[in-house]
Amino acid sequence: MNTEFISGNIAAAEAARLARPKVVMAYPITPQTTVIETIAKFCAQGKMNAKFKKMESEHSMIQAALASIAGGVRVFTATSSQGLLYGLEGVYWAGGGRFPLVMVNVNRAPCSPWALGPSLDDAMAAQASGCILMFCEDAQEILDTILCCYRLSEELNIPSIINYPGFIVSNAYENVIIPSQEMVDKFLPTFVPKFVLDPEIPYSIGNAMNSEDYTKTKLFLQKDMIKIPSVAQGISVDFKKMFGRKYEMEIEACNIETCETLVITMETVISAVREVTENDPKVGFVKIKMFNPFPKKALRSVFQTIKKRLGVQNFERIIVLDRNLYPGEGGHTWLKVRSMLTGDCFFRTILCEPECYKPFIFNYIVGLNGANITSEDIQGIVEDSKKRYGERKDEEIVFWGVEK
Amino acid sequence: MIPKEEFISSGHAACGGCGGVVGMNFVLKALGPNTVITIPACCWTIIAGAYPTSSLKIPVFHTSFASVAAAATGLRAAYDMRGKKDINVVAWAGDGGTFDIGLQALSGAAEREENIIYICNDNEAYMNTGVQRSSSTPFGAKTTTTPKGALEINWKKNMPEIVAAHGAAYVASASLAYPKDFIDKIEKAKNIKGFKYIQFCSPCPAGWGYDARYLKKIAELAVKTGIYPVYEIFDGKEYKIQRPNPKSKKELTPVEEYLKLQGRFKNLTQENIEHIQKKVNENWIELMYKAERKF
User: Fold this and answer.
1) Count of Cβ atoms closer than 10 Å to residue A348 Cβ
2) What are A's interface residues with B at a Cβ cutoff of 8 A?
3) What pLDDT is stored for residue A346 in this prediction?
4) Which residues of B touch A26 (CB under 8 A)?
5) Model-level pTM?
6) Contact yes or no for A283/A276 (Cβ under 8 A)
7) Average pLDDT over chain B, rounded to whole?
8) Sheet of strand A283-288: strand arrangement
């Protein structure tokens, strides 16, 4: 185990090296490119024993990756933004076909207009594909998440997409602990596929299905998706045992024992929140690491803890910060938190007692296309939410920084 | 000798008189059981059978419309890494999945010299979706998107030339009417390392408008008239033509004999037919010239 000063993308490539994939399917796109460049270098240097294929498009890249998995080997691949959208057919193919694909997606605002900064909207397009969606805050988390996702995906035959924001994380250098190959080999053993295309046992993959069988495949996927939290917990335990560091796959929570206001967000937006929570115990946060499937149970337990301590009446505000947008609806995280916590707003206003309104859930759209978001912004948002709470206004989506 | 072993079960989902089934039969007979095939959206998606059945006795990897050559790349890479270099990896697509939407992946695989066999079941339109024009549809042919006949468009895209221009190890066109030649070509492809592309003329009774029993006759006339010449290109430059009428003095049969048998050419005028004849003659001379070139 040694520490190296590397970028987020190089951390992803290091994780790929340690996972020993036999095939790497690649296609360049800013800001992901240095992931595949680093892997190409590892292969050329003999540090990785993998077939490195620079494909002709992301569409081909993802389908080729799936075919390699069907051929019985572990695969790594990476993309970003337009690339993920172009290859989205393959992403759905992966989810429906239950391929244990592990893919990096470096978040970048989708076009049009042309944009290079991070927004999470690219990943949100894959929400319903049947893939696990992970979001990372820093380079260490990228490395850890990729290793854990191989375990998770291969155990349940559900693909994973590991996301992190472009430039802010992909190209920023920081110290990363790189575990030894021996340790990783113990944590992540050789890939044993549950199904291989083999001429000696001539089964096929992907034949047409009638509606009943098709629905059954979705039912099985639904059931296995629900297993993810418990499987992920087991992986976290193994991770701690092997590497001596704590790594939880679903959420990270802070100041839950002291907070009055709870902020929920993902990836580097949480970095700005951290500065606030460090100085103000009345503000707490939950960082969503696994967006899909949404960590409902873990979140509920956080909410219960706060509710119990404050009393229903005094748990007033949850703030959800989204670096993404479902136009006309709001941020995706907000929509999920709101739907799990309060249900339909019709029932909230018509049928429930006033205390059932609590807490109010405010949505702020921040950091789109890499717009800067600082601790001052977070403080401003906390203040703004107090005002909005006074006015009982939590239906409105606030575009922070451009709308006053 | 045509191998006796069968790799297609009865009860498959093809139409009667389908050229695509005869073609698959020849391909698999030539390659044998140590073969894995990948199929994108095309007629064979359906013919291969619905879950839990399969009409093929070899494994099939179904993939998306545009990506059959990419999927073959992925399979090849996996088998090579597992030391199974002897497995034949076949990409099988229709002309839509080859000439149109799949061209990018085909070009990529050819350029990387992937060690795969690509078969194009060329039935000259989108037959699985109900006969829409593709860039393989010949001049004048009636489809549901060219109801008056494809008269104002270019000549059929010359895919063998396009693949050969990538420097592919082996490119060939083949005909169902000449099984020995067809199977020889597949066997050749099996033994050549690198990217192999074989496109065969695949008459389609539903889309071309002919009685199923004329399958062989139409396939034969396509070759004899020079409309669908059968030839090989080695390493992108060395041409070898299978002469259509080796015993006949007149080398090419008039195109009209081929056209008049098919409903899709019913709308052609005498002028159209003359245009086709002229163009076929020109193409034939060009092909002969290429075959006689010495390097």
Assistant:
1) 13
2) 22-23, 25, 50-51, 53, 55-57, 59-61, 63-73, 89-90, 93, 197-199, 201-210, 213
3) 47
4) none
5) 0.96
6) yes
7) 95
8) A251-254, A283-288, A261-266, A317-322, A360-365, A397-399
B63–A contact, CB cutoff 8 A: yes
pLDDT at A127 over 70: yes
Cα–Cα distance measured from residue A210 to residue A353, given in angstroms and rounded to the nearest whole number: 47
R_g of chain B computed on alpha carbons: 18
Structure-block tokens of residue B96 = 């839509």
Q: Which residues of A touch B90 (CB under 8 A)?
A: none
ipTM above 0.85, yes or no: yes
Distance (Å, whole) CA A328 – CA A397: 9
Question: Which residues in B lie closer than 8 A to residue A198 (C-beta atoms)?
Answer: 59
Relative orientation angle of helices A58-70 and B68-81, to the nearest 10 degrees:
40
SS3 B29: helix
CB A338 within 8 A of CB A264: no
What is residue A138's DSSP assignment? S
* pLDDT tens track for B167-216: 999 999 999 999 999 999 999 999 999 999 999 999 999 999 999 999 99
Residue pair A168/A370 in contact (Cβ under 8 Å)? The answer is yes
Other CB atoms within a 10 A radius of the CB of residue A328 amount to 6
Please indicate if any CB of chain A lies within 8 Å of the CB of B9. no
SS (H, E, C) B92-133: EEECHHHHHCCHHHHHHHHHCCCCCEEEEEECCCECCCCCEC
Question: Given this model, what pLDDT does residue A356 score?
Answer: 58
Cβ–Cβ pairs < 8 A, chains A and B? 155
Give the Cα separation of A13 and A10 in Å (integer).
5
**Of the partner residues B33, B59, B71, the one whose CB lies closest to the CB of residue A64:** B71
- Reading the block at residue A282, the tokens are 């009345």
